[in-house]
Amino acid sequence: MIVREGIPFILVPLLIAAVFGFLHLWPVVVVFAFVALFMMYFFRDPHRVVPTGEGLIISAADGRVTRIDITDTTKLVSVFLSPLDVHINRSPIAGTIKDITYTRGRKMPATSDEASLVNERNSLVIEGSNVTVTCTQIAGILARRIVCWPKSGDNLERGQKFGLIKFSSRTDLLMPVNVELAVKVGDRVKGGETIIARVTGEKKQVIS
User: What gap in Å lies between CA 184 and CA 196, rounded to an integer?
Assistant: First the structure.
């Protein structure tokens, strides 16, 4: 499957390739056909098997864990998405969106720690039955638009698709301290499938 936001990115180079094909300019046709094929790959929407069980927090994105920060009150896991990764974001828990905050910002490399503070980003506070987490979509140096389909007050199922970031980006997952992490820096994860953490204590909230 192809996510609908990718259709214009596929059709435009295909149409350009068709025009140059009519003019018999085959090297140009090959270039734009390759671009269309890459866009089909980039905007792919593969099926995911969402794990079941109480207290699971799953990855919101495909990519590589590049940062883990632990404080007295929170645990943060950052996942970097390269242009070759699936860029659809999925809800890490089942719950209600209590708040969505979009912030305009810069286009620093998504791997930078400062990106969480200065880059364009969109944060969703999701309240579940036993944990509240904040999932932040962060635009990277190549990203051009953050897409978020639901609105505040909507309910999400664990693993449900809620948006995407066009081209390279990062997704931060901020959790309360009462979770046991199941990943480490350098791990490859899949959105909607990989378990990031398990809730181990009483319900705590993370708002920002």
Answer: 9
Residue 186: Cβ-neighbour burial (10 angstroms; 0-12, 13-18, 19+): exposed
How does pLDDT run across 150-183, given as a tens digit for each residue? 999 999 999 999 999 887 688 999 999 999 999 9
What is the Cα–Cα distance from 79 to 77, expressed in whole angstroms? 7
Query: Is 169 part of the annotated catalytic residue set?
Result: yes
73, 160: one domain: yes
Same domain, 22 and 61: no
Residue 100 lies in domain: 56-199
Q: 106: how many CB neighbours lie within 10 A of its CB?
A: 13
**Is 87 domain-assigned?**
yes
Q: How far is it, in rounded angstroms, from Cα 116 to Cα 95?
A: 23
Q: Which of the pair, 106 or 55, is modelled with greater confidence?
A: 55
Same domain, 111 and 63: yes
pLDDT at 112: 66
Question: What tokens were used for 21?
Answer: 């094909």
What pLDDT sits at residue 39? 86
Joined tokens for residue 8: 């214009």
Helix (H) or strand (E) holding 34: helix 26-42
Catalytic pick from 59, 91, 116, 169? 169
Same domain for 178 and 120, yes or no, is yes
Q: What is the pLDDT of residue 61?
A: 95
**Residue 157 falls within a domain, yes or no?**
yes
* Residue 167: count of CB within 10 angstroms of its CB: 18
Task: Please check whether residues 73 and 141 belong to one and the same domain.
Answer: yes
